[in-house]
Specification:
The protein folds into 4 domains: 2-159, 3-Layer(aba) Sandwich (Alpha-D-Glucose-1,6-Bisphosphate, Chain A, domain 3), CATH 3.40.120.10; 186-299, Alpha-D-Glucose-1,6-Bisphosphate, subunit A, domain 3 (Alpha-D-Glucose-1,6-Bisphosphate, Chain A, domain 3, 3-Layer(aba) Sandwich); 303-422, Alpha-D-Glucose-1,6-Bisphosphate, Chain A, domain 3 (3-Layer(aba) Sandwich), CATH 3.40.120.10; 456-537, 2-Layer Sandwich (TATA-Binding Protein). The chain is built from 18 helices and 19 strands. It has helices at 2-14, 39-56, 88-99, 105-115, 136-149, 162-173, 183-200, 222-230, 256-262, 303-321, 337-347, 358-365, 386-397, 403-418, 426-440, 444-448, 484-492, 520-537, and strands at 31-34, 60-64, 73-79, 125-130, 153-159, 212-216, 238-242, 277-280, 287-292, 298-301, 327-331, 351-353, 370-374, 380-384, 456-461, 470-472, 477-480, 499-504, 511-516. The chain has a 5-stranded mixed beta sheet, sandwiched between helices. The protein has a 5-stranded mixed beta sheet with strand order 7-6-8-9-10, sandwiched between helices. The protein binds 2-acetamido-2-deoxy-6-O-phosphono-alpha-D-glucopyranose and magnesium ion. 2-acetamido-2-deoxy-6-O-phosphono-alpha-D-glucopyranose is lined by residues 28-29, 356-358, 375, 377, 379, 505-508, 512.
């Protein structure tokens, strides 16, 4: 231990000193900030990843990315053994370790080691990958230096999407039961399932589905991976890849976040009537679809629309199979009210609401046999419990069941392989959506017509200290400051289909306001009034929210 601490201290001082005294926090999606502030943080996260690996006696992942942030930013997310997000208590270890002075680094490591009962005799293994940012290679070297200084070994995958690395970590920790921990293994697993299911679809003459898709790859890692993907898809899907990084800038005027927030197509995408378009974000863990109707009007198919499509499809397969497994959908407070009403009333699938952030949705989804979760921003997946997965597998082989039941179970089995269950995955979600549309023989407007979104508006309010706002009930109720929730309630009742909530952002120094109502004008008005209430009661600074 002492030898390791000396090696760690030496490399810290000589190669990765903490030059600037600015506090950094492991937030909802790891560390994320300007790339020039991150070298020492990455080095230290290498050390932490090694210790985490020794604690869990398993391989840990470290993904270098800042997702949909601008090219100038970067960041890191650690991945736990089952391919899920880092456990919350370790988020505070990460924040602690990233912020200590260089001379306190050794003692900080000792503190964590003694708190967590780390087995120092276990050799740590860390799987490392990065997105396409210019700074990623340099930061990856810093991270690997940290792992090695702590006595661990790295496997460097180079360029991967975030969900690909989550997949690799899960594979290696299940002795490749989940899949093979290589990029080839990833594409093989997903696309074999996709092609098999596509092949089974009877070609009805009235099938309106067209197997072409235009993809905006956000000038990021999604582009080279989507090119690779196409070689596995036979004729089942043709992808025309735009914003592939050959000239444009990462996430600039493109990508899933831009399209969702701006409610308009990414630059470089030409929309033809009812032709499907999709956008990935910068690390390809989010996807949104969109199209223009015959009048040229833009329609966004966000995470809510994807969730209803997926939940409806799984519900149908489950009921055909006769299996009595419980299927549920997890959304956040941002889910459009129309989507929640449609899922509950039309699909009769129970809906749970979780706080914003993938880990909250993921955990809630684990409570169902089949848990579908999606954020409106396009991040989501489906998780199958062990019980569900083994029941589905046995039903697919059970000769006492009818052929219809067995076929449905066999299809579910293959669908499980198509889905990256570790985390939302733009590539896997795209294949799933394409499969479902092809199965139903739908054009994108058929999918869209399931329900009409309630008009909505989001606002940001700057306040002196956003922590004065605390929430409960999956962020739908403001507990403090006193009287704020009553104020929101009294505004909401003035509007038909009115709904609004406020929450402090986990990634920006602002308070976010969401409002929806029967018309766009009313949604705008409600958001502005609620924003004003936040401004008045929670210490607003600068200009009050504009009408
Ligand atoms: C992070 C979350 C995302 C969430 C967003 C909310 C992960 C991997 N990402 O990007 O799920 O929607 O934060 O940001 O958990 P906000 O707190 O600023 O509204
Ligand atoms: Mg992302």
């Amino acid at each position: 231990m002492e030898g390791m601490l000396e090696a760690v201290r030496k490399a810290a001082v000589e190669k990765y000193p903490r030059k600037v005294n600015r506090k950094i926090q492991y937030g909802t999606a790891g560390f994320r900030t300007r790339e020039e502030y991150l070298d020492h943080v990455l080095y230290r996260m290498g050390i932490l990843a090694a210790i985490r690996s020794q604690t869990k006696k398993a391989t840990i992942g470290a993904m270098i990315t800042a997702s949909h942030n601008p090219e100038e930013d970067n960041g890191i997310k650690l991945i736990d053994p089952a391919g899920e997000m880092l456990e919350a208590t370790w988020e505070s270890h990460a924040t602690f370790l990233a912020n200590v002075e260089d001379e306190d680094l050794a003692s900080a490591i000792k503190t964590i080691v003694s708190k967590e009962n780390v087995s120092m005799d276990v050799t740590a293994t860390v799987y490392v990958a990065m997105d396409t940012r210019k700074s990623s290679q340099r930061l990856s070297e810093a991270l690997q230096c940290g792992v090695q200084a702590a006595g661990g070994t790295c496997k460097d995958y180079g360029l991967l999407t975030t969900p690909q690395l989550h997949f690799m970590v899960r594979c290696v920790n299940t002795n490749n039961q989940y899949g093979t921990a290589t990029e080839e293994g990833y594409f093989q697993k997903l696309t074999t399932a996709f092609c098999k299911l596509r092949q089974q679809i009877a070609q009805k003459t009235d099938n309106m589905y067209k197997s072409t898709l235009t993809l905006d790859a956000a000038n990021g890692i999604g582009a080279p991976k989507a090119y690779k993907l196409t070689s596995y898809l036979a004729d089942y899907l043709t992808i025309d890849i735009c914003n592939d990084g050959s000239s444009g800038k990462l996430n600039y005027l493109c990508g899933a976040d831009y399209v969702k927030v701006q409610q308009k197509p990414a630059d470089g995408m030409t929309l033809h009537c009812n032709a499907r378009c999709a956008s990935f974000d910068g690390d390809a863990d989010r996807i949104v679809y969109y199209y223009a109707d015959k009048d040229g009007k833009f329609h966004l198919m966000d995470g809510d629309k994807i969730a209803t499509l997926v939940a409806g499809y799984l519900q149908e397969l489950l009921s055909r199979s006769g299996l009595t497994l419980n299927l549920g959908l997890v959304q956040t407070a941002y889910a459009n009210g129309s989507s929640t009403a449609y899922i509950t009333k039309n699909l009769k699938v129970p809906v749970a609401c979780a706080a914003t952030g993938v880990k909250h949705l993921h955990h809630r989804a684990l409570e169902f046999d089949l848990g579908v979760y999606f954020e409106a921003n396009g991040h989501g997946t489906v998780i199958f419990s062990e019980n569900a997965s083994s029941q589905i597998q046995s039903a697919a082989k059970d000769s006492s069941l009818s052929e219809i039941q067995r076929d449905a179970a066999a299809q579910l089995c293959t669908v499980m392989d198509l889905i990256n269950q570790t985390v939302g995955d733009a590539i896997s979600d795209m294949l799933l959506v394409e499969l479902i549309l092809a199965t139903y023989g739908w054009e994108i407007n058929d999918w869209d017509s399931a329900y009409i979104d309630l008009p909505n508006r989001q606002l940001k309010v700057k306040v002196k200290d956003r922590t004065v706002i605390t929430t409960a009930n999956a962020e739908r109720t403001a507990l403090t400051p006193d009287g704020l929730q009553q104020a929101v309630d009294s505004l909401v009742v003035k509007y038909e289909h009115g709904r609004s909530f406020v929450r402090p952002s986990g990634t920006e120094d602002v308070v976010r306001v969401y409002a929806e109502a029967d018309t766009q004008a009313n949604a705008d008005k409600l958001a502005q009034e609620v924003g004003q209430a936040v401004y008045n009661m929670a210490g607003g600074i600068g200009d009050p929210p504009a009408p």
